Amino acid sequence: MKKIAIVILTFSLFYAPGVFAQEPAPRVRIETMFKSFKPGEVERAIDAFAKNSLIRPELVDQWKSQTKTVLTLNPEKAILGFEFIQEQNVGESVKRLSYVLKLADRPLYWNFTFYKPAGSWVPLRMAFTEEP
């Protein structure tokens, strides 16, 4: 009985923290970013999305600039919400997700690529366009 308790204790000390420290699932990470798109918070939302990712810093800066240009966040162009479109698994370690960010004056189509090099999914790419 003591051996079983020792095995369980060892497992919880060495393996459980890794389970709890994993990055959020791709959909949670994307939707958290969209929900954070508020006036003056766009850069912070993208930085949070890109944290611990495989995205090069210069690309993150480029996305922040482009997103701020498109999302002026004034009442006439307010964000009305977002819609999940699809998730495509490209093998066991790569997945693509598509969303529509609904603006008052037009939709924006967002595509994300996530990679799972080890135990958790991390962002690899992000892009948006006004054409589907």
Task: Characterise the protein shown here.
There is one protein chain. This protein has 132 residues and is of the alpha+beta class. The chain is 39% helix and 29% strand. β1 and β2 (94-103) form a beta hairpin. α4 runs antiparallel to α5. The longest helix has 14 residues, at 57-70. The protein is globular, with a radius of gyration of 18 Å.
The order of strands across the largest sheet is: 1-2-3-4
Count the beta strands: 4
Mass-distribution shape: globular
- The overall pLDDT average reads 83
C-alpha termini separation: 60 Å
The stretches of 5 or more residues where confidence is low (pLDDT under 50) are 3-21
Largest sheet descriptor: 4 strands, antiparallel
Q: What is the helix content?
A: 25-40%
Number of helices: 5
As a whole number of angstroms, the C-alpha radius of gyration is: 18 Å
Query: What is the beta-strand fraction?
Result: 25-35%
Element pattern in H and E: HHHHHEEEE
Output the structural class: alpha+beta
Q: What's the layout of helices and strands?
A:
Layout: H1 2-14, H2 16-20, H3 26-35, H4 42-50, H5 57-70, E1 79-89, E2 94-103, E3 107-115, E4 122-129
Antiparallel strand pairs: 1-2, 2-3, 3-4
Helix pairs in contact: 3-4, 4-5
Features:
single chain; 132 residues; alpha+beta; 5 helices; 4 strands
Q: What is the gist of this entry?
A:
With 132 residues, the protein is of the alpha+beta class. It has helices at 2-14, 16-20, 26-35, 42-50, 57-70; strands at 79-89, 94-103, 107-115, 122-129. Strand 2 (94-103) and strand 3 (107-115) form a beta hairpin.
